[in-house]
Amino acid sequence: MKVFHLVRQYWIFALAGFMLILLLFIPIRLAIASYQAPQPQAIVTLGGSPYREKFTAQFAQIHPSLDIWISSGNPPEEIQAIFKTAGTPSDRLHLDYRATDTVTNFTTLVSDFKQRQIQHLYLITSDFHMPRAKAIATIVLGSHGITFTPVPISSSYPRESMIRIFRDFGRSVVWIFTGRTGASLRASLSRPLFS
């Protein structure tokens, strides 16, 4: 019985060590991406408020060569009207509605960025939301060698709680190892047990 306990402890420590080594590669990958792409190559805006899209349209005028991704924002007609009013060509705008929360804002888009060889992004969201977005982006984007420059938008909302930040940081780490964020679990828990 004691041998089984020692073997189990060994595997727990080995697994924890393996995970730690993998997570330590993220800062290295971020540093390499920053070196290879010192200037952002695209803009990503996390949906959730129309003023984020309006801010992004103005910000995009200052950076006319960068493509823009809006992750789960307002309906397409509204977003397209905002960017059309700002004079942004429609071919720069990429609307993505796969995300259901902040973690999936990143996990659904990371392969698109990799496919386009984007290594550096401007990350736009509200100031109260930015600490959580940065924690998630560091893990999800960093694990794929993509760095980011945060662009917070001022708001009157209080900063999000550390519990939410740690929860989504943990979900991001789980995603690295399993490819799952837990978002589908929330949907299945909200369904009735018997139909």
UniProtKB/TrEMBL annotation:
Entry keyword annotation includes Transmembrane: yes
Domain of life: Bacteria
Residue span(s) of domain DUF218: 41-155
Keywords from the UniProt entry: Membrane, Transmembrane, Transmembrane helix
Assigned GO CC terms: plasma membrane
Transmembrane segments: 12-32
Protein name per the record: YdcF family protein
Species: Amazonocrinis nigriterrae CENA67
